[in-house]
ABC transporter ATP-binding protein
Amino acid sequence: MSYENINIKNRQYKIVVDNIRKVYDVRSQNGQDNERFLALDNFNLKVKKGEFITVVGPSGCGKSTFLDILAGLSKPTSGKVYIDGEPITGPALDRGIILQGYALFPWRTVEKNIEFGLEIKKIPKEERKKISEKFIELVGLKGFENRYPHELSGGMKQRVAIARALAYDPEVLLMDEPFAAVDAQTRESLQEELLNIWEKTNKTIVFITHSIEEAVFLADRVVVMATSPGRIKEIINVKLPRPRINSQIRTSQEFNLSRNKIWELLHRDADKKQTEVSV
Ligand SMILES: Nc1ncnc2c1ncn2[C@@H]1O[C@H](COP(=O)(O)OP(=O)(O)OP(=O)(O)O)[C@@H](O)[C@H]1O
Ligand SMILES: [Mg+2]
């Protein structure tokens, strides 16, 4: 179905993904010929303003490819993506991005990395400092304000990237496995904090993860992808109440039902291809 004929301006959708397909030119096994690789096919999704979407799927199924397209960093081979009814033409300040292995500015301290977007927004120095202090505290980096990225661990760098994206306060947050490199305890508190921020600010979030539990805990809907070609297999509605508190949610029946359903969807193809999804 094409959305060209319906009212794209319909503001109830923050993001409309209209039948995208992404083909990469790759070298063949013998290294001499060019081949076409279908990374995404027939991909349709409508995301409401303020919705929290998580995406799970086996490694290589096209999750990052999809997020890069939403971010405007890569163009679909065919199909279109709309934000607030307008086609995406490139990266823009309305979308905060935390990419896989997202690099920090090596010449800026933790604090100055977090303040980067705020400088672009021309927020006065004192206010910038207040905001960066708040987010440094939130991601547990108090005392590390003046360190440079090379003086931090991988998980700490990732937390700076998260703080930087949140501090900038974009309407849409695109997150590619943002908590993958942090320890389990920090991860759970970051999940709760992200939900807190989301509930207060009505952001629209698209969040990629390899953890089924994380996907269910956070989302209104979980997009389950399949590979070869990368596509949506099913979208699961998560009917857990909000606000979600880790200790209450994870033992509930609804949580386990959703988790098991997604696990089965992902493992139905497991005999064909090993998935890298953890529960
Ligand atoms: N620039 C590129 N050129 C050619 N092929 C690419 C390119 N980027 C990605 N691919 C291929 O497209 C497929 C999807 O890649 P993508 O990075 O989107 O997967 P993913 O679902 O994010 O995987 P992971 O869970 O491992 O991060 C993979 O087979 C990958 O090899
Ligand atoms: Mg990826």
Notes: The longest strand covers residues 13-27. Confidence is low (pLDDT under 50) at residues 274-279. The pocket of adenosine-5'-triphosphate (ligand 1) is lined by residues 24, 26, 37, 39, 57, 59-65, 100, 230 (CB under 6 Å). The beta strands are 13-27, 34-48, 52-56, 78-83, 86-87, 95-98, 172-176, 204-208, 221-226, 231-237.
